[in-house]
Structure formats: structure tokens, C-alpha cells
What does this fold into?
Amino acid sequence: MRSYQPDLTPPWKRSAPVPEVPAEPDLVVEEVSTGFCGAVIRCEKTAQGPAVTLEDRFGKHRVFPMEPRGFLLEGRVVTLVRPSAGGPVRPARTASGSVAVPGARARVARAGRIYVEGRHDAELVERVWGDDLRIEGVVVEYLEGIDDLPAIVRDFSPGPDARLGVLVDHLVPGSKESRIAAQVSDANVLVLGHPYIDVWEAVKPSSAGIAAWPVVPRGQDWKTGVCRALGWPENTGAAWQRILSTVHSYRDLEPALLGSVEHLIDFVTAPPE
It folds into this structure.
């Protein structure tokens, strides 16, 4: 018969117990040793023990052992465990990956705005970030191009309580768009963009059901050229609805667009300094 061995460790040196949390799909946690933050994709058994795969907002995957006290959940240390059938239901998440707030009412619209170049850009932003934008009270408006961006900014009259964020297509060094964006220097305006010729390309090809976005020769209308190359009817409006229908969450979009949109939302919702 084993004799009882008391724990002689001083109380101030003992590790406090931490909660065990089922690693349900889409649960967002941070791995303590690396700081990698992502949503749970799957759990699996390995030769070294149970492991969890996380996916960050840019689509990068990493596998971590499910060690005790190995993760942070909303800033608290937790131990991830494999989920059991019929476990508790976790909070739902929005298409952008944020925790959904059931029954939340839309906030009264802020004075600040986010401008995007066209209707397709606005529809894509609404599809993924719409729930977040309504809770934050951020209105997205679309422009017919940005050729007159400096005048548009002046007419908006941005200020600390009315910041303006602008999302620009094809914002790469040397482009016409980059030269126009450089003319805007107001501290209450943030101009960001993505490298794609059109926001269509910000949808991952795998999500859109194609191998890759076609290369369209210079001088051709890009959207029409894409339809021709893919063998789709040359109806760009119908083609866009086909593409948009394949977007269900942030995972269907390229990181270059994700980072810019989320940065713009943070910018226009930040409290005045």
C-alpha cells in the first residue's frame, strides 16, 4: 500500500489550475511560446500526442502540440483538449472571423466612412465584414474610380471625429493609382489598397473554382478578358455574382485584401487622440 506523500511546494510556487477548453473548429486562440494566433482547423492524434492545427487570418497553417497551459483564449491561459461529441456550443463567428454578438443592434452611423472604388468592392466588403461594420457603425460607400480622390477628400472634410479610409485597387509602386494616392496627405485619411488589377482577383482561385486568374493582355478590358479566358459568357455582372457567391468568409480572400480592410476599419473606429 502506497503511503501518502504531502505536497511540500510552497503555495506561492504552485501553478494555479487553468481551464480546459475543447478545441472546437473556428475557436481563435494564441499559442503562448510563439504568439501565433489563429482559428482551430482540426485536432488529431500524432506519435507525440494530440495536436491542433491553427489558421491565421492570412490563411497560414501551423500545427502545435496540445500541451497543458499552452494557449491563450481572450488573454487567459488555457489548456486545449480534444472536443467530445455533444459538447457545449461555442459562440458563432461572423464571416470576418469575429465573435458574433447575437441580437446586437446596429450602431448609429459614425461620421467617418470607408470609400471603395466600385460596386463590386463594396459588395465584397459587405459580404465578409458587413456584420462587423454595422456593429461599429461604419458606412462603406463606393466611388466610380479614384481620379478625383484629392477633391473627394476635401469635400468630405475629414477630422479626428470623422476619419476617412480609402481602399484602392492596383495600389502598387509606379501605378496611376499610387500617384493619385500620394496626393492625399491629411492625417485623418488613410489610403490603403491591394496589388490586384481588380477586386475579383482578391478572391482565392480555389474558392472561385478556377485554377488561377487568367493573364489578360494589356489594352483589353480586364473583366471581359477574364470571362473569355475562362469560357464564361461575356457578361461581367453575371460573372461577378458567380464569383461573389463562392465567398463565404475571410478564408476565401487573399491576405493582401484582408489586411487592408481590417486596418481601415481599425483606423476609422479608433477614438480621437
About this structure: The longest strand covers residues 37-46.
